[in-house]
Design brief:
The protein is an alpha+beta fold and 459 residues long. Strand 6 and strand 7 form a beta hairpin. The two termini are 63 Å apart. The chain is built from 14 helices and 17 strands. The strands form six sheets. It has a four-stranded antiparallel β-sheet with strand order 3-2-5-17. Strands 7-6-13 form a three-stranded antiparallel β-sheet. The protein is extended. 20% of the residues are buried. Helix 3 packs across helix 13 and helix 8 packs across helix 9.
């Protein structure tokens, strides 16, 4: 029997006393028998698992960093922030394209899918007089005395997401994009938190005056034109009179007035029931000798107009009756033709979403020109601004060219090699303008406007 030296054993830091005693006890028994010792790996790993809580606690107290489990709420918030910045940059980039008369192009992300994982792998290594023991062997050969043991754990964390990026350059999207905005869309945004001068400056394209003699004057909302201050003057005057989107009566007469006998011969014996089902009402007209009824198709729609107020006489003289919301069909029927001819007329044209991009491109071009012109919108009576004492407080859109800015609201490197940015501070109505334009675009995204597209994996 070969001579064996008595090994020394001591409790390893991080192990419970009972675990150490059991481990040392097994070693002593096998040593006393004088045999080569073979211990199963599972016993060794069981001992390591008992020590892991103490290992993690020790690492935390000693300041050693360890990765935590993926927080899916943080991941989803991060994706939302990425998508928000993506949309802002896309709108800003197309405004820059419009300022240079380049074609615009729109993309969208209809779906975003995220995934996360965490893998925990415990490990340990021990050193005997015989050398280092590989942790992945089925059985651990031990020959000699235990010198030290190093347990541990490795954490592997991964997260990724993929998104579907689709082009909006198709006929379904562009038909809505190029069509004039409906007046009811303007009504959606008439709220106290949106200054009326900002909203109307974005959506109003032209103001057309027609004098009683037939002469017309067109003022175009383009800051590059010399008559732009005149346009703003009339727009602000109309705002002060109460210009807004209101639901008005747009009923129309159907044919000439008819007697009861004519109604039945024209529309049948069930004329009254049929007209009622079709939304047609009868208005009594004519003298007492022969009672007639005027068929009227009842309808209502939104109109950009002014409610009657204390300035009614001044408004009527300058802009005519058609600007009033109260100009109903009954008033039109009873008004003499001569009176209608001597009044001026006012027509307000609304932009399409495409023309709003063109307008903001003109604002950008005027601002970055050699003789810079910043389009500002002075506050009206109902305007509330929280950006007081800023030099650009009432600017509709602020763009910097090749100027460094800390965490800009948006930054784009254009094809001309220049960097354009919207500052995060002292930017006037720029965030509100981008927000309104984003919502106008969202209203154009009807079913079929966003085609399917292969997804792109981003890690």
């Amino acid at each position: 029997m070969p001579t064996m030296h008595q090994p020394s054993f001591e409790c390893i830091k991080g192990f419970s006393p009972n675990s150490c005693q059991e481990w040392v006890f097994v070693l002593k028994i096998h040593y006393a028998m004088g045999n080569l010792i073979w211990l199963k790996k599972i016993n060794f790993l069981s001992l390591v698992r008992k020590a892991l809580p103490n290992i993690v606690l020790s690492a935390t107290l000693s300041g050693c960093g360890s990765a935590g489990a993926p927080d899916f709420s943080q991941m989803s918030a991060k994706y939302a922030n990425i998508l928000e910045q993506y949309q802002i940059n896309m709108i800003f980039q197309n405004i820059l394209r419009s300022s240079e008369n380049r074609p615009v192009s729109f993309l969208d992300m209809p779906t975003i899918n995220g995934s996360g994982s965490i893998t925990t792998t415990p490990y340990a290594s021990a050193f005997f007089t015989g050398g280092i023991i590989p942790y992945n062997s089925s059985y651990l050969p031990i020959n000699g005395g235990l010198t030290n043991i190093t347990p541990g754990v490795s954490l592997s964390i991964g997260n990724s997401f993929n998104f579907t990026q689709s082009s909006l350059d198709n006929a379904v999207f562009w038909k809505g994009y190029l069509n004039e905005l409906p007046i009811e869309m303007v009504k959606y945004f008439e709220h106290n938190h949106i200054p009326k001068e900002v909203l109307l400056s974005l959506v109003v394209d032209e103001i057309i005056f027609t004098k009683p003699d037939g002469e017309s004057l067109t003022l175009i909302n383009n800051p590059l034109r010399p008559d732009h201050p005149e346009f703003q003057k009339h727009l602000y005057k109309l705002i002060s009179y109460g210009l807004g989107a209101y639901l008005v009566d747009t009923s129309q007469k159907i044919g000439p007035p008819l007697t009861v006998a004519n109604l039945k011969s024209t529309f049948g014996e069930n004329a009254f029931e049929a007209m009622k089902d079709s939304g047609i009402v009868l208005q009594k007209v004519g003298g007492s000798s022969e009672i007639k009824f005027q068929p009227i198709q009842v309808s209502k729609k939104y109109k950009l107009c002014i409610n009657a107020n204390k300035y009614e006489n001044f408004v009527r003289q300058e802009y005519g009756d058609e600007i009033f919301c109260q100009e109903t069909l009954a008033q039109d029927i009873n008004k003499p033709n001569a009176q209608k001819k001597i009044q001026p007329k006012l027509n307000i044209r609304i932009r399409s979403t495409n023309n709003i991009f063109e307008y903001l491109g003109q604002v950008t071009k005027a601002q970055l020109a050699e003789n810079s012109y910043m389009v500002t919108l002075p506050p009206t009576a109902t305007t509330f601004s929280s950006k007081t004492n800023n030099s650009n407080e009432y600017a509709i859109f602020v763009v910097y060219k090749n100027q460094s800015s800390t965490r800009p609201f948006s930054s784009i490197e254009s094809l001309d090699g220049n960097t354009y940015s919207i500052p995060s501070e002292n930017n006037g109505y720029s965030p509100l303008t981008i927000k309104l334009l984003s919502q106008f675009m969202s209203l154009q995204k009807i079913p079929g406007s966003i085609p399917a597209s292969p997804s792109v994996l981003l890690k």
